[in-house]
């Protein structure tokens, strides 16, 4: 993903916005707020960011005291802002809502649960100042995730790679974007968002910062298996038509096989005395074809569902309150 160095140096203004999506995070939020404020202080002192830098917490329709915590923090520190979405819209959409209201020239997105190393933001700023437009946070290892999450994620990344979806390995949504990269991202108006897949398409100069991924500081994962699956399927069908092509190939293979079967049955019927062609040769194809057809219809449905959702051009979220 190496791009040639930019010739006209972009504006490297050091106003930083940190966007944090939060869904029922009242258990970890006080600690996260504390650490992010410390980070703003130390980066400002070091001259790496300007004093008008900000943190934006996006409350993704939480049902606990998350929003109260955000408001309280804003009263104490005017660099802390909050947006409250009118309902739970999911991580990707919450993130986008926060990105859309960020005022900084460098914009970092990070999860609320302190799994991503807040200290890596300084390194990201260094890369940004040195000229990168997109800085990916890449975790060194996933020791702290469950074996299940680790292996499924590993398989999934491989599958995506096979389907030509360009994606940064072991990178989630911890990244820095420059203002112009963010503006480019915002021009993608699709409703089904898989930011991890879109950001590499922007094509600006990129850099990578490695960090250790910690265990969730408190609370439990807001990504149950069901949601992980949904995100995974979205990731494939939003970026690749390979499954559709696979259906065509499958259809060809099955047709060829059926052709052979027909010849075989005809041969039995015409040139042998073995009598009625067997039960098997009529029943097996029924099962086989039934299965393949259902599978194919399922995949088609997945894409048609996507067209349906996109064609409605629905607004992605509404803001209920902000501080
Ligand atoms: N999140 C959100 N809306 C949701 C689910 C999650 O804003 O519907 C936020 C959550 O508060 C956290 C981030 O997305 O800051 C990542 O979620 P989580 O840590 O639960 O996912 P995991 O790390 O287990 O994949
Ligand atoms: Mg997490």
Write up what this structure looks like.
The protein folds into two domains: 16-222, Spore Coat Polysaccharide Biosynthesis Protein SpsA, Chain A (Alpha-Beta Complex); 242-312. The chain has ten helices and eight strands. The chain has an eight-stranded mixed beta sheet, with helices on both faces. It has helices at 29-45, 66-76, 91-101, 120-129, 147-162, 179-186, 195-202, 225-237, 242-271, 279-312; strands spanning 16-22, 54-59, 80-85, 106-109, 134-139, 171-178, 206-211, 319-322. The chain is α/β, with parallel strands linked by helices. Helix content is 49%, strand content 15%. 29% of the residues are buried. α9 (242-271) runs antiparallel to α10 (279-312). The longest helix has 34 residues, at 279-312. The site of uridine-5'-diphosphate has 16 residues, from β1 and α3.
Tell me the radius of gyration.
25 Å
User: Regarding CATH, which class of the largest domain?
Assistant: Alpha Beta
What is the helix/strand order? EHEHEHEHEHEHHEHHHE
Shape: elongated
Question: Can you summarize this structure?
Answer:
The chain is an alpha/beta fold.
What's the arrangement of secondary structure elements?
Layout: E1 16-22, H1 29-45, E2 54-59, H2 66-76, E3 80-85, H3 91-101, E4 106-109, H4 120-129, E5 134-139, H5 147-162, E6 171-178, H6 179-186, H7 195-202, E7 206-211, H8 225-237, H9 242-271, H10 279-312, E8 319-322
Parallel strand pairs: 1-2, 1-4, 2-3, 5-7
Antiparallel strand pairs: 3-8, 4-6, 5-6
Bound molecules: uridine-5'-diphosphate and magnesium ion.
């Amino acid at each position: 993903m190496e791009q040639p160095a930019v010739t006209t140096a972009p504006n490297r203004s050091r106003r930083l916005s940190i966007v944090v999506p939060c869904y029922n995070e009242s258990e970890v939020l006080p600690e996260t707020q504390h650490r992010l404020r410390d980070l703003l202080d130390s980066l400002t002192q070091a001259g790496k960011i300007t004093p008008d830098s900000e943190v934006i917490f996006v409350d993704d329709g939480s049902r606990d005291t998350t929003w109260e915590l955000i408001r309280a923090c804003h009263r104490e520190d005017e660099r802390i802002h909050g947006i409250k979405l009118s309902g739970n819209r999911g991580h990707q959409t919450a993130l986008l809502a926060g990105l859309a209201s960020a005022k900084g020239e460098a914009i970092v997105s990070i999860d609320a649960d302190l799994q991503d190393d807040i200290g890596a933001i300084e390194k990201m700023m260094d890369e940004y100042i040195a000229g990168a437009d997109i800085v990916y946070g890449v975790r060194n290892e996933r020791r702290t995730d469950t074996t299940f999450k680790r292996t499924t994620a590993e398989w999934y990344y491989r599958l995506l790679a096979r389907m030509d979806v360009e994606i940064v390995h072991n990178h989630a949504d911890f990244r820095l974007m420059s203002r112009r990269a963010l503006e480019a991202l915002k021009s993608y108006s699709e409703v089904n968002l898989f930011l991890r897949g879109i950001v590499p398409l922007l094509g600006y100069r990129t850099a990578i910062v490695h960090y250790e991924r910690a265990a969730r500081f408190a609370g439990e994962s807001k990504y149950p298996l069901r949601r992980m699956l949904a995100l995974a399927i979205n990731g494939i069908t939003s970026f690749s038509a390979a499954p559709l092509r696979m259906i065509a190939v499958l259809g060809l293979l099955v047709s060829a096989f059926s052709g052979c079967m027909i010849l075989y049955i005809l041969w039995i019927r015409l040139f042998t005395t073995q009598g009625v062609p067997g039960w098997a040769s009529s029943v097996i194809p029924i099962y086989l074809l039934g299965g393949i057809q259902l599978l194919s219809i399922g995949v088609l449905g997945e894409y048609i569902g996507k067209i349906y959702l996109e064609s409605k051009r629905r607004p992605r979220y509404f803001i209920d309150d902000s501080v």
